[in-house]
Every structure is written in structure tokens, then in C-alpha cells.
Amino acid sequence: MRIISYNVNGIRAAIKKGFLDWLKTNPADVICVQETKAVKGDVDHTAFNKLGYHDFWYSAQKKGYSGVAVFTKIKPDNVEYGTGHKVSDDEGRVIQLDFKDVRLINAYFPSGTSGDERQTFKYAWLDQFNTYLDKQKKKYPRLILCGDYNIAHTEIDIHDPKGNKKSSGFLPEEREWLTKFLDNDWVDTFREFHPEPHRYSWWSQRFPTVRLQNRGWRIDYITVTNDLKKNVKDAEIFPDVMHSDHCPIYIDIKL
After folding, report:
1. CB-based contact 94:68 (threshold 8 Å)
2. What is the pLDDT of residue 153?
3. Is 112 within 8 Å of 119 (Cβ atoms)?
4. What is the reported pLDDT for 208?
5. Percent of the chain having pLDDT more than 90?
6. How far is CA 15 from CA 2, 91, 245, in A?
7. Where are the alpha helices (DSSP H) in the chain?
8. Looking at 29, 148, 220, 245, which residue is catalytic?
9. Quick one: which of 20, 168, 187, 233 has the fewest CB in 10 Å?
10. pLDDT at residue 209 above 90?
11. Statement: residue 211 has pLDDT above 90
12. How confident is the model at residue 163 (pLDDT cuts 50, 70, 90)?
């Protein structure tokens, strides 16, 4: 099974840039997208069905904001929308699918770049979500968590660590949260295969040349619990797929 995680920065904008044509190349069995900025009725979702995908959407109450979706050629046994945490669910941040004894969680972590209020919300969300995941692990030891985490973990995950040490997404508290998270029975699948620097999944759109110069951040992850570590056969980033300011990442996993 190949699983892709991809922040599309607006599903309608991505479709205009060739997202559906890319899906025709059969890039993965399961594609988890974040920041859809749409509800299911905003797009011709039957286009996904015609390509062989079941589609599941969880959108924010605020129009044109946040939201997650999953397009999967393998029909899940169960789908859960949200986590029961109202402020998170109102923003459409988490959708969960079960494939036999494996639970796949697609999550769009909050960003704190718009100011102190959202940064405070981000810290609270991270703590609440971590508590939620600890409970989930007891029920579902075989977990896959993919999404835009909005955190660059280490200095090799960002093009300018010194210049961004006070930037949301690379703050010491955020990085420490991710360190503790990974130390608590989670595996950063990409780093299992790629210890090298200069591998990124997001590039700022404020400066048009930064993607060409590969001045980016690695803030998109697919992590698995240790019970699934040996099942992951490959992990990679697709920097040349350009429907968004992010690019897709994937794992190949044997289930």
C-alpha cells in the first residue's frame, strides 16, 4: 500500500493546476490531503470516483478554511470524523480511517504564523492531540499519522535554522514537542530512509524563487507507531509535484 500526504493549499486551486491529471497517473492507493478550503459540494467530487477513489471529507465550519479529505482506492472498514475536541473539529482538522487492524489518521496541525493568539491555540491543540493519540494507541497499536504538522523538527529540516529560530514552526517549544512525541513510540518514516539535509516539503510563496533555490522547510510527515516500523518499505518526498506551496510525501507500507 502506498500512502500519500499532501497539503494542497485549496483543493479547487490544486485542481486548476492539474491535481486530477496527477491522480490519473495512479500515484498512490490512499491520498490524504490537508487544507482543502472547501466542502464536498464545492467541487465535482464524482471526478474522484471516476478515477476509482472513494472520497471522504471533513471540512471546517468557516467557509474556505482548513479542512481535510482522503481519496482511497481501498475501501476503509470505518471512517471517523474529528476527535471530539470541539475547537479542533470546528476547523475540520482530523479524519480517521480503519483498514483492518490499522488506523490511518489524517491531520492538519494548526499554524501559529498569524500571531500570538493562534500560536497559543497551536500549543493547546498539540497538547490535547497528544493526549488523544495516547488513548488511541491503547485501542489501535498499529497507527499511521500523516499530515501537515506545521513544525520543522531539526536544523536539517529547514534551510535557514539560525534566521528562523524565532519563527513559528521552528520555535524551541514546538520542536521539543515533536521530539517528545517521536520519543513516545512514534517513527519519523522519512528519516528512517533519508538522513541527508536539504529535503523539504514546503516553500514560502511570498518569494517566488525560494522553491527553485530549494530554500524550504520539512513540515509534512508520515509517522507510524513502532508496531508498524518494520512494515514501512520506503518513504520519499515528491518536490517536483507542484499544485501547492507544499509537495506530496509518501510511504510504501506492507500490511
Report:
1. yes
2. 98
3. yes
4. 82
5. 98
6. 21, 22, 14
7. 11-16, 19-23, 46-50, 86-89, 116-139, 172-183, 189-193
8. 148
9. 233
10. yes
11. yes
12. very high
Q: Is 148 a catalytic residue?
A: yes
pLDDT per position as a tens digit, 46-84: 999 999 999 999 999 999 999 999 999 999 999 999 999
Confidence of residue 18 (pLDDT cuts 50, 70, 90): very high
75: buried, middle or exposed (CB in 10 Å: 19+, 13-18, 0-12)? exposed
Q: Phi/psi at 129 (nearest 5 deg)? A: -65, -40
Residue with cell 510527515: 221
- Name the residue with cell 514537542: 177
By CB atoms closer than 10 A (0-12, 13-18, 19+), residue 194 is middle
Handedness of CA 55, 61, 63, 66 (dihedral sign): negative
Per DSSP bridges, beta strands 68-72 and 30-34 are antiparallel
Single-letter amino acid code for the residue at 131: T
Please identify which residue in the block is written with the cell numbers 471512517: 79
Task: Using DSSP, state whether 164 is helix, strand or coil.
Answer: coil
Q: Which three cell numbers stand for residue 7?
A: 497539503
Mean pLDDT computed over every residue of the chain:
97
Q: Chain centroid to CA 125: how far? A: 15
At 210, list the grid cell: 525560494
The C-alpha cell at 23 is 491522480
Mean pLDDT within 236-247: 98
Give the integer Cα–Cα distance in Å for 153 and 151. 6
